[in-house]
Amino acid sequence: MADDKGKRDLRDRDRESAEDVYKVDCFANKMRISVPQLHELIRKHGSDRETLERESRTFRV
Description:
The protein has a domain at 21-56. It is built from three helices and no strands. The chain has helices spanning 21-31, 35-45, 49-56.
């Protein structure tokens, strides 16, 4: 049976959750920053993935 295309997922795929340990680790590794640095960025700038990617460049050495 085919999926109902009228049903949409309500999750925000452009947001980064600070509560999901696996996603936080993966995102921190991808951006080459530590997990505490990522948590600091989320506190300062919110959970928008694009903003976090841009701001993570300030922590890179």
